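Handout, section 4.2: multi-component inputs.
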Amino acid sequence: MHDVAAHAAHHAPPTSFIRKHVFSLDHKVIGKQYYALALVAALVGMVLSWFMRIHLAWTNAAIPGLQLLSPNGAPGGVMTPEYYLQLMTMHGTIMVFFVLTTAPFAAFGNFFLPIQVGAEDMPFPHFNMMSFWVTFVAFLVLMSSFFVGDGPTLGGWTQYAPLNAVGSVAGPGQGAGVVLWAISIALFCVGQLLGALNFIPTTLDLRVKGMSLMRLPLSAWAWFITSCMGLTAFAVLMPACILVILDHVAGTSFFVASNLVMNDQMLPHSGGSTLLWQHLFWFFGHPEVYIAIIPGIGIVSHILITNMRKPMLSQRVLIYSMGALAVLSYMVYGHHMFVSGMNPFSSLAFSFPTLVITIPSSIVVLIWTFSLYGSKLRINSASLFALGFISMFVSGGVSGFFLAQPSIDIMLHATYFVVGHFHLVMGVAAMFGIFAGTYFWFPKMAGRMMNETLGKIHFWLSFVGAYCIFMPFHYLGMAGNVRRYSTFVDDFLQPLIPVHRFITIAALITGAAQLIFLYNLIHSRFWGAPAPDNPWEATSLEWSTATPPPWDNFGGKHPVVYHDPYQYGVQSSVGDYVMQTSPEQVKTEHEEK
Amino acid sequence: MATTVHEPPQIDPHRLPDQGHSGNFGWRNLVPADGDLRVALDYSPPPSSTGIWVVLFAITMMFAAFTSALIVRKGSSLDWQTFTLPSILYFNTLLLLASSVTLEVSRRRVATFMGGLKSQVESPARWLYITLFLGLLFVAGQYVAWSQLSAQGLYLATNPSSSFFYVLTATHALHVLGGLGGLIYVIRKLSKSSLRRSTLDATARYWHFMDVLWLYLILLLWIKL
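Output:
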């Protein structure tokens, strides 16, 4: 009985404040911590994008207060071209790593994956806690680069070699800024690997009785697939960051070519391969796009099914498609490198799987649309954002067909067309997935309901606003508007400035609309109506436990699963659905074993 | 079907869930600390045995990245200078191989000990200590190899070949140190009689993997440097 006692002690709820709320081992607290981190990061990233947009539209306008952030980068509040690039780099890094990876995957996944499989916690709670705190330190390290030396790095979130490896001769922020960036990202990789170490055994080993793999909710499948991808991708990015740091601080020459002259200085490095960095980076970078979007696919499917009151046309095909996306995402990464000077045959080899990957994406979209067809969708903030996700995913994905072809990509690669493409398909779509998940799961996470009216206003402003911002980007790109320029002084760019002003105004309004969400979130957290255990009449395990869930998720009981997660549209004693934990037998067309 | 009178729903409290390939009751399929291994049910393996594969996969990917970087870097320029590996590395290889053998011996002993045959095994931790010692000796031996190279004037930044030598061996040594930490954890748990079989198995798997990884690395370095 010794082990049982030890086991029970291990799972006794903590009493001290620090153990409860700061260094908590509880996956639910860790999930909320990740969510809070993503929220702060998203706000910082959004404000940075405002600065950039204002500068692009009104180049000489001073932004009050910006000189306080960097007296050299923004003298008098007007940013220098270098500082524009520094803000752009930080915007990209913060958003991709600390928002799009942490919120849909680490935050919701941590909170709900163990509950959806019926476990008491993740198998390695200490590693789970470390995962968050390492990520938190990574964020602090990245933020610190704003205040060190000549500011953060200006190399873009992709940090191409050799500029990332030669030191401050390459420009402001390329000294200490890059090193801090690389340390931050290497730490982030450690955090995400520790996350995968928990997510994968949770899914495989901690499922309760009756919970076969095919009975996992689609969101759980998405988190599982994402954690497998993260395991492969972050384990490659970390060594790449180590090599960059060594080039910087130890004088090695992994990425810096011979006889490089920069700012009239001959660099001491020799023989490195600049293309090597791009290969290592994009082997991570492309899967990273799917790490951001696949949790959204799972969350949106989960929410839509609940609100359609019927299962998807095929749950299995959805799961297989997500798996196919994950596998293919490793074979397509070279499509980011069509203009890198890579062998043209490689371009061909990467172009083909890029076109192939549109097949599982299209299958997912078709399953969604045909399942939605004729369904009586319950309209609420969560389902609206889920529909918005599909809209953004399709609008952004369609331009992927064009960019997949090297001959077209070479024309469009360095233009705003690509900026519009990835913002819609990865940025906005994933954000909509986060919003949908928040409106859907907030009652369970906080024990209170969010305000639906504010949620709907938030949706419509964000939906229309996102299209106003990112659709014109495609037009700008086709008109030849180069990206990464801080000002548009050239003749051919002058006529496009009104478009930029329109985008900037749309960005300011859409950004301000996010404050409605923030208000809703904070107000509902403290003063919202108390949430019932199962407000959406949903079936999966997270709705079978108390709201908010107790420390060990199910109050000392081990739930037993009798049904697949999406038994809607049936007749049962509680309504048109039967919960996974209900032993009630219902007449149904199809049920996963 | 509005005219149909619904029968009351059938709820069968004795109905068994369809098992499928289902999990292990949330947590409960853990091998008891000093108990019978047969208690472990035929559901999923304990999380640590899946977890260790996750760790090993991540390490594999990491060294695959380093390897591809090495191959690309060597081919991208003519500045690659070869050098002879310090011969102590081969001795270190033997040390590491021996430590795997001693770990297997200790695993058998601990299994007997945990299987309830305590009286037959006096000190189950002894072979773990020997493994620990051999592991430490390996890391010390690697340090000797590094100092021998630097005595020859080959530093981290001297040449890409030496850069990769230091990066690969140091990363491996760090992971070996992690394995030593795992061994210490196992010894501590064993002394408190709260060791889980799965923890020991996971540690052993990690340790043997370090062994295989080192064989791969020394072969790679021998071919490429």
